[in-house]
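Aim 2, interim progress. The first record below pairs a target sequence with its structure tokens.
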Amino acid sequence: MLGTLLLLTVGSPVGLGLVVVLTGAMIPPLLVLCNVLTELTVHHTVLTQAFSWLGSASAAGSAAAAAGSGSAIDSLGAHGGFAITTASATAMTLLSLAGLRLLPTPKR
């Protein structure tokens, strides 16, 4: 979420390139964390199904984000697309924090 806030302040193509690399570098650790949490909290007999749901949700979220950002860019320009990205990242961060209490304690 914090990386996407930087998108709203960028004023040059070089700065945009640096911010996009920084923001993009946060995606692999996030995906690994999602997979680890899934593995620790889901019963092993349905683990494949859980990973399938995780991958499907990720793809659906990416598609919805691309559609929303594209629409915002068409009507509001690049800054509007960055604002949608920041708003979405903020919403997902808040939902994730709210959902932390719902996670079962991992079994070791």
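The second target in this work package is listed in the same format:
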Amino acid sequence: MANNTKMIGARIKPDLEERMKELAARERRTVSDWIRCRLEDAVAAATSSDQHHSEAA
């Protein structure tokens, strides 16, 4: 089974990294899983927002 994911990199501030670790631990996820979920949510929200703007035009 092929894995169709792509790795990306980002620079984050040390204090943000600690906060992400805490939030990920609270949800019992790895930091990378937690970030992936948040990115998927952000993309879905942006896509939904774009659709609302195009429908209103």
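The mean pLDDT is 84. This observation will shape the mutagenesis plan for the next reporting period.
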